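Exam prep: given the inputs below (a chain plus fe (iii) ion), describe the expected output before reading on.
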Amino acid sequence: MAATLFTNIRQLVNIREEDQLLRGKALAYLPVLKNAYLMVEDGIIAAYGLMDEMPESLTVVEEIVDASGQMILPCWCDSHTHLVFAASREEEFVDKIKGLSYAEIAARGGGILNSAKKLNDTSESELIRLAWNRIQELIRMGTGAVEIKSGYGLSVEGELKMLRVIKKLKETSPIPVKATFLGAHSYPPAYKDNHSGYIDLIKNEMLPVIAEEELADYIDVFCETGFFSKEETIDICKAGMAHGLIPKIHANQLHLSGGVQAGVELGALSVDHLETMDEEAIRLLAASNTIGTLLPTAAFFLRMPFQPARQLIDAGTAIALASDFNPGSSPSGNMNLVIAMSCIQMKMLPEEAINAATVNGAFAMGLQDSLGSITVGKKANLILTKPIPSLAYLPYAFGSSNIDRVMIAGEWA
Ligand code: NIG
Ligand code: FE
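Solution:
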């Protein structure tokens, strides 16, 4: 039996007997065990406790890791990414530095349409290779589960190709992958003046095949001024729901788009982004079961105001944190940076940020039964930090790599 015993762990972080979606004051409570042991068996968390109470019988294992001075955390659960893409877009990044706006870049064929063109010209195997390398990089940075969206196809073939790539990643990736259909990410040029035609394509040509081939878990819409309205979002999500997909919506990124209202009305699992919120949207979301997923690196990269995390948390919203890893608005999937930015720029407490990136992140991708906390029976996807003085040191020392090693399903990554 493959087993690893960790001894002398300075802090074993986020130990929970059962998981609940965390909101309000509960988000700031991060249960830890100091001077602890942790036993991993066959890829699963088998036991943990205080060093003083460690049964002698546990020490007959293949591998004993003395974690003196080090912390162990559950891996980050990144519930919002677009990590299948054909090429980076640093030329737009430079154009923006020179003063071009998002709209001007889009008008030049940049933005999402730029990625869509490149993706449609790239083979399935090349997309798999590129995405695989990105997942490997994320794992080294402590990510132990990832959601991936389509949305750079914007054609029947392109969207299905992307989702088949994600399905392949699901089957082969060492970390759990969830798939989201985001056909409604933008309008392809041929449907620029025929929005209802493209929405019909999504509903009649894409969704039935996606359901038939079981290509997606979730349905997403970019609910945004100039993209998909609140009504169109509801219409598309309902069509997805009729095929068994659960909504997770891009909401309120650039404008008060009605995305939060749509998500709450639909009972969406999450509404994501939330840079642009008013009191009504905050109140509605806080009173709902829908998770508010904040993507601070996207706000940072686009030089936008950060999400109002404090108001959201204080109103009682269940907050998750995710990377939004994509070539246009967050060319980084580094969750350590996401956590640091949440503390530095949005005034989240380190405990809140860690909970939002683990327990609540797992909930935001339906993986709360197997990931997101140190719980007996859950998958041993673990971060072993370097020796660090405290948990707050993680977001504080934001430019350092504080991770020593990552374990995925009981194996060193
Ligand atoms: O989540 N906002 C919409 N979609 C992506 C950006 C897509 C792109 O620019 O390629 C996002 O930020
Ligand atoms: Fe996104």
